[in-house]
Amino acid sequence: MRDAQSQQLPAVKLLEWYDRSARLMPWRVSPADKARGVRPDPYRVWMSEVMLQQTTVAAVTAYFQRFTARWPTVADLAAAEDADVMAEWAGLGYYARARNLLACARAVVRDYGGVFPDSAAGMRALPGVGPYTAAAVAAICYDEPAVVVDGNVERVMARLFAVQDPLPGAKPELVRLAGLLTPALRPGDYAQAVMDLGATICSPRNPACGICPLLGLCAAQQIGIAAELPRKIAKPEKPVRQGVAWVATRGGMVLLERRAERGLLGGMLGFPSDGWDGSALGAPFAAEWRDLGAVKHTFTHFHLVLQVMQSDSDANPQRGEFMLVNPDDLPTLMRKAYDLAFPDKKPR
DNA sequence: TATGCGTGGAC
DNA sequence: TGTCCAAGCAT
User: Fold this and answer.
1) What's the CATH fold of domain A2-228?
2) Per-residue pLDDT for chain A (348 aa), expressed as one digit of tens each?
3) Per-domain residue ranges for chain A?
4) CATH ID of A240-341, from 3.90.226.10, 3.20.20.370, 3.40.50.620, 3.90.79.10
């Protein structure tokens, strides 16, 4: 087997390509600054990596700018109110990340004097930091040759070595191959190069093999199956759930409740609702509820049709609290219900 | 190892 | 319209 020892050529080609075409992102240090000895800020790199978990660069950028403007250091973030962080995260999804982000910032301040651990092993012990994020921060910030494996790396390795076994079973083999390619020099730039390649040229559909820096080295391209890899086990189809949301208005206020820390939209504000998330509590008070129609929303594992009921009664609610809310602070599902009740307000 | 957990964009 | 998919982690 040719891959019995480390392979240097792909990393060389990828770094050459990265030096030509690296994309500017607000959490990256420009090549010019790096030449002057500027190091990436672990706080910013960590935050970007958490936001980028299962989320595109396009979706993350504005959130990253707002978070770092409002909380410029890990100590600032650690001192933030939970509700402010959850509100700022609203719309980005996977809300456990926001809770872990805050828990991690507080752990860094409390246990490490406000300085992030300078190794992948140290990072890995922090809340919300898994194998990928720990390796990425260590490689980018500390030049540790950690093996960085995300969805992009899996795809690039599967194609480069024509791995035909389907995911997730093929994962250990793809990690092994990624380890063979990881260079001792510039491991952070290398990791970002592979991910940039996966996000642009070596894309899931219609990979641009003709302009790929690894053209000629790629086994899948040579046998004409690059676009078919990586193979994946078929996912079960999503069931449809139904529910009701109760939008009670009073003056400019709406009735909201803080959702449970764990589970769907955990820790976020939402309208009292039932029938779709395990709850079945009924209306927050007896009143004449107007049927505003339904909103549709799709979560990771089910479709939701949520009937929206609205009332202006001044009855005493048994759940929730009337609040003035910025609709941008609501998770998208709840924002959809809000927009049905207040069609005049501008969408974000 | 399998499942739960958001959202918006591409096709 | 529907389906797939993204720089994963916790349990």
Assistant:
1) Endonuclease III; domain 1 (1.10.340)
2) 444 567 899 999 999 999 998 888 999 998 789 889 999 999 999 999 999 999 999 999 999 999 999 999 999 999 999 999 999 999 999 999 999 999 999 999 999 999 999 999 999 999 999 999 999 999 999 999 999 999 999 999 999 999 999 999 999 999 999 999 999 999 999 999 999 999 999 999 999 999 999 999 999 999 999 999 999 998 889 999 999 999 999 988 999 999 999 999 999 999 999 999 988 889 999 999 999 999 999 999 999 999 999 999 889 999 999 999 999 999 999 999 999 999 877 554
3) 2-228, 240-341
4) 3.90.79.10
DSSP label of A348: -
Q: Is the pTM of this model over 0.85?
A: yes
CA distance A245 to A270: 9
Q: Which one is catalytic: A16, A49, A144, A257?
A: A49
Q: What is the dihedral of CA A160, A165, A171, A173, to 10 degrees?
A: -60
**Alpha carbon separation from A104 to A96, A114, A310, A337 (Å, rounded):** 12, 11, 39, 32
Does residue A151 lie within 7 Å of nucleic acid chain C, judged by its CB?
yes
Q: Which of residues 240-299 of A touch strand C (CB under 7 A)?
A: 298
- Strand C near-CB residues (< 7 Å), A 188-247: 192, 195-196, 198-199, 204-205, 232, 234-235, 237-238
